[in-house]
Fold each of these.
Amino acid sequence: MKQLLADKKFYKRVLLVAFPIILQQLLASSVQLVDNLMVGTLGELAIGAVSVVNQMYFVVIIVTFGAMGGAGIFTAQYFGSKQFGRLKQTFRFKLSTALVLSILAIGIFSFFGEFFIGLFTDNPVTIAWGMDYLNIAKWVMIPMSLSTAISTSFREIGITKPLLKISTIAILSNVVLNYLLIFGHLGFPRLGVQGAAIATLVSRSIEFALLYVLLETRGQVFNTKLYRMFQINKVLFKVILIAAIPLIINEFLFSFGQTVFMQSYAMRGDNALAAINITSAISQLVFITFGGIGTAVAVFIGNTLGENKLEEAKENSKKIFIFAVAFAIFLGIVLFILSFFVLDLYDISQETENIARFNIRVNAFMIPIISLYISLYFTLRSGGDTKSTMIMDSGYIWVVQVPVVFVLSRFTDLKVIYMYLTIQLLEIPKVLLALSRYRKEYWLRNLAIENKHNAEKLMLKEEGTLLDNS
C-alpha cells in the first residue's frame, strides 16, 4: 500500500490525463445546473417536463456510450500496440453505429414520445410542455452521437485538452442561448422550454462542427473518410460486435432501470419528480470524476494491456482506485456543504426543497462507493470482461434494485426520500461483486494480440487473406 501511495509521478500523470475531462464534466454539470435553474423559474411543472424528456434522452446517450465503449476497448489496445489499420476500423464502427442509433432514436421519439412522457405523469400541462421540448430536442441525437464517436476516440488515445476547449465553447453557447431564448432577452422571442431545446440543439451542433475540425487536424491516426464509414472488415466487425453487444445491452438495461427508478419516484407526485431532477442536476457537480476515471483506465490500463505489460496494468489499476476514492471523498464533502444553501437558488416549494436536500446528502455519502465501483467497472471492461460487467451492472439492477423500488412505490406508503435512500444503499453489494471479479483477473488480457491471431485465422478460413489494414 505504501508503494502505491508513494508513486507521486503516476498520480501526476493521471491528473494530466483525467483533469481536462474532469474539468470538462464540471463545466457541463455547472451548465446543466444553470439550465435547471433557468427552467425552474418557469415552475415545477416545467422542471418535471424537461426532466422526463431528459431521462428518455439519457437512455439513448448511455446506449450510445455502450456501443462506443465496446469499440473503445480495441481503440485503446490497438493504439497501444500500434495496429493503426485496425484502429481506423474501430472508428468506422463507432461512426456507423452512432448514426444508426441516432436515427433509430429520432424515429422512436417521433412516434412514441407522448406515450413515454405519459408514463411519468398524468398532468396535461407537463405532458404538453414535455412534447414541446421533445419535438425539438430529438434532433440533437445526430450531432450528439457523432460527437461521442469522435471525442471518445481522442480520449482513448490520451488526447484530452482540445476536448476541454471545444466543450467549453459548446457549453458557453448553450448558456447564452438559454438566457436569450427561454426568457426572450435582446429582442429574441420568449420561448420557454422550447427555447431550452433550441439552445441544446444549436450548442450540440457547434460542438460537432468543432470536433470535426479537430478530427481533420489531429485525428489522422484513426480518422477515416466519411464515404468509408461502413467499410469495416467483416471479421473485425464481428470481433468488435462480440465485445460491444454485452455493453450495449448493459447500458440499455442500466439506463432503462434508472428510468424505472425515476418513474417510481414520480408516483409520489410532481414535487417528488421535480426534486429528483434537482438532485441529479446538483449531484452531477461532484459526479465529475467518472469520465476522468474512464479516460485514465483507457490510457493507463487499456493502452498498457495493449503493450502486453500485464503486471504494470495491474499495478496501475490499484493506483487508479486509490485516486478515484480519495478524490470522491473530497467531492462528497463539497456536495454535503452545498446542500445547505444551493437549493435557495430555486423557486420551489418547501416540500420539494426538503426532498432534494435529503437526497443530495445521501449522494454525498455514497459518491466514494460509487466512484470505486466505476473504477472497477472500467478496469474489467478494459480487458474485455464485458459479460461480467453486464451481469453485475444491469443484471444486478433488474434482479435487485428494480423489484425493490417497484414494490416500495406501488405497495407501500414509504416516503420518496426513504425509497431513494434504499436504492442508493443497494449499490454497496454491487461494489463487492465487482471487487470479487477484479481479483480473479479475467480482465488481465492483451486483446490486441489475442484478436489479431483470432481474426487472422478466421480471415484465412473465410477469405484466404489477412485483415485489411488500410
Note: Residues 44-80 form the longest helix (37 residues).
Amino acid sequence: MCDDPDLAPALALDGVSFAYAGAPVVNDVTLRLRRGEMVALLGPNGAGKSTLLKLASGILTPGKGTARVGGADLRRLARDAIARRVAVVPQDFAVQFAYTVRQVVELGRMPHMGAWSVARATDRAAVENALVATNTRELAERVFNELSGGERQRVLLALALAQDAPIVLLDEPTAHLDIRHQIETLDLLRRLNRERGITVLAALHDLNLASRYFPRLVLIRTHILADGPPAHVLRDDLLSRAYDIPVRVGILRGEEHLSIVPPAFAEQVIHVAAHVPASRVHVLAGGGSGELLMRTLADADIPFTAGPLNAGDTDHALAHRLALQTLAEPPYAPVSAQGLAAARDLMGAAGAVVVCPMPVGPGNLALLDAALDARRGGVAVVLLEPARRAAHNESGAAENEEGDFAAIAARDFSGGAAERYAALADTGALWAGSPAEVVALVTG
C-alpha cells in the first residue's frame, strides 16, 4: 500500500474474494493498474469478470481483501466520492422515461452537484465537452431509448466522460454491436485513453479485438490465470484451460495481432515468415464477404487496398480500418465511373486481385470486367470461393466446377456473373477455398 495518492496505483485489488450464496466467484485476486493503463479482462461466462468490475467500483464489498482507488479504501468512501473517482459503463442500460441524450449525459454530473443537484456552468461545460468528444452532440436532443446500439454505447461513454472520473470500468462495451460499431467503440475508447490519460479496465469476450486494442490482458476464471501482453496471455494452453475447449492461437504479427482459431480450422493458420515479401493485394468484396479475408491479410502483414465499397457496408467499416486505401461510394449507390476508374488503377498496380464471394449486381459486373482486364494485363487474380468442395487438380482447374458456378449463380442478381468467372478462370485466375489458401497463393 502507498500512502501518497500521487504515487499509488490508479486501481488496486489486493487479495479480493467474493462469493454468491456461498459459491466463490472471485478468489484471491490481486490486480493493480497504473494510471493511464488500458487493460482488458478476459474469461468465459461466469469467470468473475463482471463481479471483479463491481468490486473495483465499490458496488460490491469484498468478502476478503481490499479494493482501493488512488490509495483510498473503497469501503471508507461515500458513494458520491467513489463516483468522482470511478465511472462505470454497464453492459445493459435503460431509462424508463423519454430522456434525451443530453439528459442521460447530465446524469454523469450528479456526483459533483451536491445535495441540491443544481447544475453550474462547470457542469454544463463538462456535458458539452463529453458530447463533443464522443461525437454525440448531434444526438443531444434525441430520445436515448430510440438510438441504435452503437449510438447508445457512445452516449454511455459520454456519460462516463461527463462524470470526470480518472478511471473508467466497462462491462462488455462491444456486446450486441456489429463489427462497424465494435471498431468505432474501441477506437473511441483508445483515443480517449491516449488523449485524456483515462485508466481503462474493460471486460471483453472478443479475444481478437482485445489483442488489437489492449496492450495488457488479464485472463481470469475465478482467479487470475495470466496477466501480461497479448502474446503472453493468448496461449493455447491457457485459453484451453480457461474455456474448457482446445484452441490454437496463430501469432502472425508479433504481439500486436493474434488470431484465435477453433481446432477444426487449426490447419489453416498461416505463419508468414518475416523475410517473405508480400506484394500489395486489391480486394473486391461487399456485404461482409471480405471480412475474414481482410482480417487474414492484416494478420499475415500483407498490405491491401479495397473497393469500391458502399459506406455503411460491414466490409467498408473493416477495410477503412485495415486497408492502405479504401474506395468508397455512398450507401446503396452503384459503382460510379470515378470509382471504377480508381479501382482499375489500383488493380493494375497490385501484385494480385482477390475476388471475394460478393453479391453480383450490375455494378459488380463492371468490377469483374476490370479484374478480367487486370488478369489479361498480367496481374494475378484469385477467386475466393469457400463453397468449393474439392481441391484444385494439377492444372489449377477445379474438379468441381459445377458446384463452384452453382454457388456463384445463387448470389448473381445480374445474370452475367458466371460468364465473367468463366472468363477469369480461362485466363488463368486461381481458385481458393479459404482466406488461408489466398495467403498461400499471394505469398507463394
Note: The chain has a mean pLDDT of 84.
Amino acid sequence: MHRLFALSLSALVVLAFLGTTASARVMETGDATVVRRASAAVVNIAEWKTRASTQPGQPPRRIKVYASGFVIDPSGIIVTNKHVVDGALDMHVIFSNGDRVPARLLVAGAMADVAVIKVDVDHPLPALKWADSDALQVGDAVLTMGNPLGLGMSVSAGIISALNRNLHDTPFDDYIQTDAAINFGNSGGPLIDHNGDVVGIDTALYNPDANGGSIGIGFAIPSNIASFVVRFLLNPDRPKPGWIGVTLQDLDERLADAMGVQRASGAIISAIDPSGPAGHADLRPADVLEAIDGAPQSDSRAFMRAIVRMSVGRALHLTFWRDGRKLDTTVSVAAWPNYTPTQGLMRGEAVQHMIEAAPDPGMRIAAITDEARAQYGLDPSLTGALVSAVEQDCEARELGIVPGDVITNIQGAPVASPDDVRRAIEAAHQAHRAYLAMLIHNKTDLHWVSLSITSAGS
C-alpha cells in the first residue's frame, strides 16, 4: 500500500486533518449487479520486486508483491498506482476468469501516483469508464474492488467519508477519503460508484500500526485527476504543464482576518517569481487569490491543480484581495520552467537495469556446525548448507523455506557448503536461467523448490 502511512510521523500529521468516519455500510442488492458488470475489467497484479538487502555488500533481494488495477481501454490498457510498479522486475495480470497474462509498463507519473501498464491479448477486453469525481458528495455510496493481501478479487462497500484530503504527498493533493475497506494489495484498484464507473484509484490507507490493515480510513485519487494524468502520460507529445510563477499557502481564519478577507478560503501568495507571468501581472506576496475565471478555488492545492492543467498561452482571469479590496487581473499561462516531457517518468525499458545483479532470495546461508545440529535436531550424517535466517517478504519465505532447513542439492549437484549455493545462483544468473531447482531437507520431508533467477522466472 502507499508508503505514507507506514511512517508514524506522517500518520500523526494526517490525523490532524481527519474527521470522524462512519462504519462501513453493508452491501446492498444493487451492488451485486454493479460488481458483476465491473469485475471483468478489474485485475489482480502479481509481481516480483527488488528490495535492498539488509546485509551490507549483499545484492538486492526479491519480494513478492500483490496489487490491483483496472482496464480502461479494450486494447489492454490498464491503470494502477506508480508505487505498484516502482522497482518491478516482472508483472502478471490475473483477470476475474483466472486468465494470467504478462504485463509491461508503458509509463508512470512523476508526482501523481498513477501508472499505465499494457497486456497483449487477441480479443477486446471489458473496460471501465471514468466518472466525474467533482460531482461526489460526502455520504455517496461507493465500492472498492481489488486484491487485498494477495487473496484474490474482493469487494467491499462504504461511503465517501470526506473530500479534498491533503496527505502532504504533492502540492496537488485532493484525495477522496472512504470507509470502504482498503488494505495492502488494493493499491491501484478502482473506487466505483453506483453505476459501476470509476470515481477514484485506491491508493493509501491509514493505520497507527504500520503493519495493520483497514480501520475504515482509506484514500483514493479522484477520477478527474487520474484521467487527466493518464491522458497526459499516454500523449506522445506530453505538453508542458501550466505555470504562472507563484508559491501559494492555504488561507486560515486568522490569516483571513489579518488580510481583511471576508472568508477563509482561497490561497495567499507567499512568493512570486519576478520572471514569471504573475510577476508581470503585478501580483504581490500577501495577495489572496480567490477565483480563476470566476470559479472560486478552495485552497492552494485547488489553484495549483487548475493552473497545471491549463494550456500554455491561455489568458487566466484571477480574482484576488489586496488591502481589503477585491481586485482582478489577467495572467498568461506559461510553460512549467525546466520541465522536459520525460522528467520523472519511469519507462518499461528502465526496468532492465534493475536485474543486472544476481537476486538475493532473502535467506542467509551458513555451514552446518555441531551447534546447528543440536539447535535444529539435524541428523549427524546430513550434509549441505544450512538456512540460518529468512527475511520477511522475500522469495525464500514465499517458497516455504524456514530457518533450520538444509539445501542438499541444486540442479542435480550435491551441496556441501554455503559457497556451493552462492556459486550456483551466480552461475544461473550469468546463464540467464529462469529458475534454479533446490532440494530442501526440512523437519518433515525432502522436496524441491524452484528459485526464480531472471525476470522471466518471476
Note: The chain has ten helices and 27 strands.
Amino acid sequence: MRLVKIGDKYIGDGQPVYIIAEIGINHNGSVELAKKLIDGAVFAGCDAVKFQKRTPELCTPRDQWSIERDTPWGRMTYIEYRHKVEFGQAEYAEIDRYCKERGIHWFVSPWDEEALNFILQFHPLVIKIASASITDENLIIKARNTGLPIMISTGMSTEAEVDKAIQIIGSNQLLVAQSTSTYPCKTHELNLKVIHSFKMKYPEIPIGYSGHETGLAPTLAAVAMGASFLERHITLDRAMWGTDQAASVEITGMFRLVKDVRDIERAMGDGQKQVYESELNSLKKLRKFTSL
C-alpha cells in the first residue's frame, strides 16, 4: 500500500488512523458555531475538520428552488436556504486562519467545479469528492489535475461507478472510503465488509470509512478491520436544527471515539505471538507444565 501524505501526516498501513470531524453544514451558516465545532474537534484529538462547499444554483435541482420550507431564519425558498448555509470568501478566510491557529487540518468537499475553483485559493491539503459527486467526471478530472491528494466516499455507488472514478483519478494519491449515504444509517446497511473487499481489490490504495450511523461501535469496528482513515459528522447537539445533526457525534462522543481508536491501535500489536514480561509471574503460578 502506498502512503498518502496530507500536510504533515501520512495515511496508510502502519500509520495512525487519520480522524476527520465532518462539520459539513452543521454550522448552520454561523462562523462562530463553526469555530466551536473546530474547538470540539481539537479537544477530541481529531486530525482534521471538513466542510462542504456548493454553488447553490448548480447543485440544487431547478424544480426545488421555489419550494418553501421552515428554517431557523423563518420561512424561505429552498434556494434561499442553500445560500444561507454557504460560507463565502470572508468566512473561509477566517476558518483558514482559525484552524491554523488551533493546529488542525481543514479541507472541503466541493460539490461542483465552481466550488472547487473557489476553494483552491486556500491551498487545500486534500480534495474530498463526496458520494454525491463520484459520477461527476468533469469535477473528478478537474480535481485530479490539481495534483493534490484526493479522497472519495462511495455512498450510493455501484462497484462499477467506484471503479470508473478510480480509473479516472489514478491510485497514486488516492484515498477511498466505504460509506452508505443514509442519515442516519441503519446498522444492517453499513456493510463494513466492503472495507475488506476494497483492500483486496485496491491493495495500493488506503481504504477508510465515512460513517453516518448513530453510535460509535461500527466506526470502531472499521478500525479493527483495517480502515486507515475515518470520517464522522460532528455537532454540538444532535437535536439542533439541520439535516445532518441526527447522524452526527457530539463533542464528548467524538472524544471517546478518538480515545478508543487510539486504544485499538495500541491493542492490535505486531501479530507475533510472544510471552510478555508481565505474564511471567502468572506463568510461574498457574502453569503446571512448561514447554521444552
Note: The radius of gyration is 21 Å.
